[in-house]
TrEMBL record:
Keywords: Membrane, Transmembrane, Transmembrane helix. The keyword Transcription does not apply. This is DUF2798 domain-containing protein. InterPro entries: DUF2798. The chain crosses the membrane at residues 9-29, 49-70, 82-107, 119-142. The keyword Membrane applies. It comes from the Bacteria. Pfam families: DUF2798 (PF11391).
Length: 163
């Protein structure tokens, strides 16, 4: 996927934004007991706070730890798809309790019990959302942005070779 730091930053921004938005929508729905247009609008109010936190955590801390953890069970010679899944699962396992803690302090009545409850309610949704929806969508968006640029280069080289 990302091949350099710039691409890694872009990928992480997209992932953090889509993942945080989905999880905030989920939490707003849990708190209100319903899903309607206001649920999606209300969720946008937390994005300016939660997306930068998620980006900084994932880009500078959690991503590195998750890769180390993933490679305790995976080998570099394993299929790249499975390595991606392992890293995604490790990121969820680390980010969910941290982001649940942040959300508990910022938006709820802070207590250990509230944090554990928030974490327990968020984790099943976070792992499923990441593996089945958010992760594939972000990889699709990322490929649409970056692969086209790389795909054009070999075509241009072939045109030069035939002249």
């Amino acid at each position: 996927m990302p091949k350099n730091k710039f691409q890694d930053v872009i990928f992480t921004i997209i992932m953090a934004t889509i993942m945080v938005y989905g999880m905030v929508v989920y939490n707003v729905a849990l708190n209100t007991g319903t899903v309607n247009g206001t649920t999606f609008l209300t969720a946008t109010h937390e994005l300016p706070i939660m997306v930068p936190i998620a980006f900084v955590l994932e880009f500078f801390i959690v991503g590195k730890i998750a890769k180390m953890l993933a490679f305790t069970v995976m080998r570099p010679t394993d299929r790249p798809q499975f390595i991606t899944y392992a890293i995604s699962i490790c990121i969820c396992c680390i980010m969910c309790p941290i982001m649940s803690l942040v959300a508990t302090f910022l938006f709820k009545e802070p207590s250990f019990g509230m944090w554990v409850k928030t974490w327990a309610m968020n984790f099943p949704m976070a792992i499923c959302y990441q593996m089945f929806y958010c992760g594939p969508l972000v990889r699709l968006i990322f490929r649409a942005i970056f692969v086209r640029k790389n795909a054009e280069a070999p075509e241009n080289m072939c045109a030069v070779d035939t002249e």
